[in-house]
Amino acid sequence: MELSRPRGTRDFLFEEMKQRKQVEATLKKVFETYAYEEIKTPLFENLSLFTMKSGEEIVDQLYNFKDKSDREITLRPELTAPVARLYMNEMQKSPKPIKMYYYGSCFRYERPQKGRYRQFWQFGCEMIGGKTPEADAEIIAMASQSLEELNLQGYEIHVGHLGILRGLLKEADVEGPDQDQIMALIDKGELEELQNYLKTVNIDEDTAHVLLMIIEMKGGSEVLEKVREKVSDKKLVIEALDEFSHLIDTLNDFGIDNIGDHENNNVVINLGIARGLDYYSGMVFEIYVPRLGAQKQICGGGTYNLVEIFGGEKVESTGFAFGFDRLMNALMHDKKDEKPVPTIEVFVAPISDSTRNKSFQIAQQLRKAGIPTEVDLARKKFKKLLSYADRLGANKVILVGERDLKEGNVTIKNMETGKQDSVQADKVLEHILDGR
Ligand code: ATP
Ligand code: MG
């Protein structure tokens, strides 16, 4: 019998689950503060949902299969396309913008390593029908506030605009698959291959030179002025630059200023962001935690026109997803030494067999009052009961002894101070609540 886990998957134990739940709750709170509402879509979708926009190559990365009726199905690799599908199916007539968030697992057939799994979780959002650049600015502000509230240290939010690179290529008549291939090479940071590829497409030397310069540019709004000087005759690029400048100004109003100033802010303009997928069109952003090494990207997003690709009308959409597992890796890196959170508050310890029934009754009374309580179910010897309660992190142990009980009493031991109180058995709940 094969008992090992499938490659690239993980089990999560108690402590890790608690930490993950806490982070999930913080993100939920922030997203809801920005008026997003939660949705849930299926774990599997029709394969065509993902091949339609990204072509057949993406199948290599998918967990796809035929179901018993020969339908082509795949586990979802991400949630932007499912949410766009949901919008097409259910929400086209809803007032806009529609703000949705999700938390769920995704599946990709990847080469597993730290921060790269075959089942992983994304916490993300989509805003359908907001107008850029204000929609873009608000989304970046929300991503930023999320990380502040999680108290994450040492992250960088890199913001770019695909209209600049795509505009430049389009003006040089590089379109379609050639353009996509160039964007993919930029995304992967494969500079040498990019240079070689540029030689094979029909692109003038000057444009190639400007392109290679732009993808290296990072900093504050001065970066945009520098590019502007080089592309003054290229209308599409100037349009994208104008839109991007407007976004940077709007970000100011959303409380993100000093962009590019490392001391006072962790937002930088980075014109080399290309994003892997073909459906992104305007603003794009990625968040990095450099200490995570190769898997440093904890978040990715931008504006896209997926609804139009699916045959709907053009509706401006912006979204992003935190790679939840990488975010956890980054946060745990910061708080390795924190003490685990205790599981329970009270442990009820029957000291002899005859007091078990009463112990169960006391435990139930406390649980119904919402007090996390454990009672001995393993018939442990008295000696073992206290050390076990201590291991669970109980701060009160209720010792239910035969002689005590005959007089209508139990003993409550405070595990922190060691102090013991004799309490009437029918006053246990009051005593515990008083001592909280
Ligand atoms: P990468 O380039 O690292 O593969 P990606 O560009 O494929 O990332 P997206 O599709 O934008 O990633 O997904 C959003 C986020 O999900 C990423 O920023 C990353 O944090 C996380 N992510 C992507 N793939 C994985 C994976 N296999 N395991 C864990 N997290 C992942
Ligand atoms: Mg990937």
Mean pLDDT across every amino acid position: 93
The CATH class name of the largest domain reads Alpha Beta
| Largest sheet: number of strands, sense, barrel closure | 9 strands, mixed
| Total helical segments | 16
Distinct small molecules bound, one entry per kind: adenosine-5'-triphosphate, magnesium ion
Global structural class: alpha+beta
Can you say what the CATH homologous superfamily of the largest domain is? Bira Bifunctional Protein, Domain 2
Q: Strands of the largest sheet, in order across it?
A: 1-5-6-12-11-10-7-9-8
Q: Mind telling me which CATH architecture of the largest domain this is? A: 2-Layer Sandwich
The geometry reads as elongated
CATH topology of the largest domain: BirA Bifunctional Protein, domain 2
Count the beta strands.
17
Radius of gyration: 28 Å
Low-confidence stretches: none
**Proportion of strand residues:** 15-25%
Distance between the termini: 50 Å
**Percent helix among the residues?**
40-55%
